[in-house]
Design a protein that fits this description.
alpha/beta, three-stranded parallel β-sheet, four-stranded mixed β-sheet
Length: 136
């Protein structure tokens, strides 16, 4: 399976604190399409993830997160300005979770078709997954 999408840094408030109460955030990496790629590997199947990430330590941390689950990241393009962020205030009891997205100028927003060799990427693939938010 090949998954095209965005992986972002998630900053979550610890201990169910509200955004206005926290002095720190827990860091994780994810996004809908990245989560699908990892889930496919957890089922024992092969999955490749394609995206565009900044060529810096944060982009590498996002790639490393996917690799922990066995996701093939060899076709991830590097470049662009920054990694997309989202902030999570986990819900508790009757209070719903809150999410704030910060995707402006993220590398994936600058992706070009020429960033990828689709013939090579799709060689042998039997499934393609993406969402409506990723394609430009």
């Amino acid at each position: 399976m090949v998954t095209l999408g965005e992986i972002m840094m998630r900053l979550s408030t610890p201990d169910y604190k509200r955004f206005v109460q926290t002095e720190s955030f827990d860091v994780n990496y994810g996004g809908g399409e990245a989560n699908v790629a990892a889930a496919i590997c957890n089922y024992g199947l092969q999955s490749s993830f394609i995206s565009k990430l900044p060529d810096n330590a944060l982009g590498q941390a996002a790639i490393n997160q996917l690799r922990r689950y066995g996701v093939d990241t060899q076709h991830v393009a590097r470049g662009g300005k920054r990694l997309g962020l989202y902030f999570l205030e986990p819900g508790v009891s009757m209070r719903a979770s809150q999410v704030i997205y910060d995707r402006a100028d993220a590398s994936i927003t600058e992706v070009e078709l020429s960033d990828f060799d689709f013939d090579k990427i799709f060689d042998g693939a039997d499934w393609f997954h993406t969402s409506g938010i990723t394609p430009p």
